Amino acid sequence: MQVSINWLKEYVTVTESPQEVARRLTAAGLTVEVIRPLNQGVRGVVAGLVEAMARHPQADTLWVCQVHTGERTLQIVTGAQNVQVGDRVPVAVPGSTVAGGKELGVTNLRGVESHGMLCAPDELGIGEGHDGIMILPPDTPPGADCVELLGLDDTVLELDLTANYASHAQSMVGVAQEYAAATGQEVRWPQPRITETPGAHIRERMQVRIAAPDLCMRFAGRMIEGVQVQPSPLWMQKRLRAAGMRPISNIVDITNFVMLELGQPLHAYDYHQLAGSLLNARRAGNGEEMTTLDGNRRVMDENVLVIADAEKPQGIAGVMGGGESEVTAATTTIFLEAAWFHNINNRQTSRRYNLPSEAASRFTKGVDPSGMVRTLDRAMELMVELGGGRVVPGVLDVYPRAYAPRVIPGRMPRLRTIMGLEVGMQKAMTLLERLGFKMMAGEEILTDLADPGEGPVWAAAHQVSPVPQDEHAYAAWAEALRAEIRRAGELVKKWAADEAEIILAVVPTRRLDLGIEDDLAEEIARQVGYDEIVATLPRGNTTRGGRLREQEVVLAARRILAGAGLDEVMTYSLVHPKIYDRLRLPADDWRRQALTLANPLYDERSTLRTTIVASLLDVLQYNVNRQVRDLKVFEIGKVYWPVQDAVLPTEKWFLGLAAIGNMQAKGWGTPARPVDFYAVKGQVENLLDGLGIRDYRWVPATEAFLHPGRTAALEIGGRPAGLLGELHPEVQAAWDLSGRTYVANLDFAVLAEATVEIRPYRPVPRFPAALRDVALVIGQDVPADTLLATIRSAGGDLVEDVRLFDLYQGEQVAAGKRSLAYSITYRATDRTLTDAEVEAAHSQVRRALATLGAELRS
Questions:
Q1: How far is it between the farthest Cα atoms of the chain?
Q2: I want to staple 825 with a disulfide (CB 3.0 to 4.6 A). Which of 41, 244, 380, 800 is the partner?
């Protein structure tokens, strides 16, 4: 929201500097991000009358103009082709400066002197257009100062509004209300006065219907005939420019001006282009199409609300109108629409078609449900004044879901507790009244609340917001108000027995963000000033904090992996649905049944991932493309597995590892060591060891995205715990990765359940160890993991460590066999082992290996 200080002064008295106004608004919650003077260095530029024009004798594209500037006539050369004799234009006379501070003088253009310059809008800092000279209204007096004439003597405050304030502060009067409350003033609301031309009532010429009351809760309209579409006056143009909008014509400018003034978007239709003299707020048909004002063809479905005539849509409700019924220079009769649309549906539609606008922004945040007829009257008043129209008698107002003012009771002791401020009841009521609320307390509210009728609360509700004039609409509104009064009455009755200080606020309908007692505390606190709230420590029972066991396991795993040289990454849980094709998953693979968002921001992040591998491959690709080729990364994150016949998926924690390039970079006297299967397997085993997990083993496995024959599955306590392997060449090519890539995909829940010790302390052994080696020849079909488990089991508690240190396959070993050599460490924790004990344990190991078919060589 851009707020012009000069415009603000029309609704409230402003004597302070723009900086002080910004401070007050920010303190009230309407954050001012930028204070921007409109004058960017323009000085001395005046209005001029073009009295004569002639071709430049040395250039066909230049004109030599005689321009009267009030006191003198100047010769000025211009290349603009839109200037004609009789036009009023901005003139930068010698000695003046234009936007940016550039000073103008007398120049010679191909032998002809030019005493200054005719100015385009961008040269005055009021736009980016340089298509031609700016043409001023025909009644502009020559010599008038363009700084004042064009409203450059103004300062604009750019507000960054949060959602709760945007519902009422996206209008000039809304901001004026906040400033008036901060300075103890009254707001000067526009009071439109119109005279209806005698004749047929609007109901005899036009119909309005609402076929989708869940998406359009109110639809009102007025009609004006005999209008002349022409440029709007300069005063309106400068108001729109200050707000960041481009003037177009008097009719379009009036709809924008009133929207900025009162916060209610309007839409003007060329009445004679509406088939059947009808407008209907309905859902679009599936596949229904229309061309919007930007010239694009839009395909719609039943989730889109349209405003349609008797034959076809004439606009996407609250987003953009259609081209067929737009106001043109030939338009003479206008039907003007004001409506209240469902804010969430409006936001979804605006995003769907990528059509953000000032109107859509206001509908999305919420507009005043009661302000539509007042807004229509204000627009009619201006159209009569600036377009010479005649107002057709009557208003069409369809209001199926009446919205009455909220009636909010509050207990002063509780409000003081919430605020942390000692505010008296009378002061609290005064502060709320400054915001336009009607306040009351004491006995008067008790009798009225018990029997809603013509009492003080009823009267106050009729004062805070416009009341529907249509008989049926008023009946629905009145019933909604009675229900609201009864609800408040139940609360007051409940509180009255224990609490004497009860206040009651009747809230204007423009404040859609208020509804409960706590809201009153916030409104009072921001009027007093948040800086008045004294900082205090919280009171109450406290307990010592701590981490859950699962959190400790996650922290330990991160420390172990980071300590081993891996970099932790954090990736999005939302992925592109095409990743499952890139991972070579079969068409019937359950992981393809990922949950897709109904309203994603963009396709790249539209699906909840069912595997963490693709996310890590995205990280590798991003870095490799930027010449970072040696990578070892990990992530502990969630995946989302679909559940049959369930709406929501199951969330599971997974640990992913990925590595590419070198495990160890080339250094002084040491060669580079490329990443391989065993290096990544070693990282996983280092993690398992750090978590105290001993009962695990690796078994051969297959996976669509991993290389056949280079894939292993991890089992912990007999439970599947994940996969590790080299990336399939086709998957590697799909991510454009050069060099072999290795990944691990582990079920972290299984790891966490199997964790025995986290960061265990192991004292230095007190007794010496005994080392023995065993070499054997065994068939290639026996996994090394089986041999390792056999050695540990046979050696019992005396086996402290087992390491494979040699593997040989060649001519000296029979086909289908391999030679392995293990180093075994024996140690007891309570004594020094004797040679006999060591030999006995080692003999048991040798016998156990022999039962597997091993030929012992030592």
A1: 123
A2: 800
Contact assessment for residue 243 and residue 2, using Cβ atoms and an 8 Å cutoff: yes
Beta bridge partners of 19: none
pLDDT at 760: 59
Q: Report the sign of the C-alpha dihedral through residues 804, 808, 809, 813, in that order.
A: negative
Residue 201, C-beta contacts closer than 8 angstroms, at least 6 positions apart: 392, 393, 394
Predicted pLDDT of residue 309: 95
Q: Over the chain, what is the mean pLDDT?
A: 91
Which residues on neighbouring strands pair with residue 338, listed in sequence order? 220, 266
Q: Which is nearest to 505 in space by CA: 449, 422, 423, 424?
A: 449
User: Residue 670, Cβ neighbours under 10 Å: how many?
Assistant: 9
Q: How would you class 504 by CB atoms within 10 Å of its CB: exposed for 0-12, middle for 13-18, buried for 19 or more?
A: buried
Which residues have C-beta within 8 Å of that of residue 286, sequence separation ≥ 6? 301, 302
How sure is the predictor about 544, in pLDDT bands with cuts at 50, 70 and 90? Answer: confident
Name the amino acid, one letter, at 276.
G
List, in order, residues 6 or more apart from 805 with CB less than 8 Å away: 821, 822, 823
**pLDDT score of 454:** 72
pLDDT in tens, 140-151: 999 999 999 999
Instruction: For residue 454, give Cα distances in angstroms to 407, 461, 462, 488, 825.
Output: 15, 11, 10, 16, 96
Strands (E), 229-325: 266-270, 278-283, 289-291, 297-299, 305-308, 313-316, 320-321
Tell me phi and psi for residue 429, to 5 degrees: -65, -40
List all residues 6 or more positions away from 321 whose beta carbon is below 8 Å from its beta carbon.
267, 269, 292, 293, 314, 315
Q: Are 620 and 738 in contact (CB under 8 A)?
A: no
Return the bridge partners of 283, or none: 305
Collapsing DSSP states into helix, strand and coil, what is residue 834?
A: coil
Q: pLDDT grade, residue 312 (50/70/90)? A: very high
- Residue 759: the pLDDT is 57
**Which residue type occupies 46?**
V
**Residue 560 is encoded by which pair of tokens?**
């172990």
Q: Which residues pair with 713 in a beta bridge?
A: 699, 723
Give the C-alpha separation, 371 to 426, whole Å: 30
Backbone CA torsion sign across 414, 415, 420, 425? negative
* CA atoms of 250 and 229, how far apart (whole Å): 6
Q: Is 250 left (phi over 0), alpha (psi -120 to 50) or beta?
A: alpha
- CB neighbours (10 Å) of residue 63? 18
CA distance 366 to 361: 9
State the pLDDT confidence band at 401, using cuts at 50, 70 and 90. Answer: confident
**b/e sequence 436-475, b meaning 16+ C-beta within 10 Å:** bbbbbbeeebeebbeebeebbbbebbbebbbbbebeebee
Q: Is the pTM of this model over 0.70?
A: no
Neighbours of 157 (CB within 10 A): 23
How far are the Cα atoms of 11, 14, 460, 509 from residue 466, in angstroms, in the given order?
19, 27, 11, 9
Residue found by looking up tokens 């007891």 in the block: 828
Which of 633-643 are b and which e, b meaning 16 or more Cβ less than 10 Å from the residue's Cβ?
A: bbbbbebbbbe
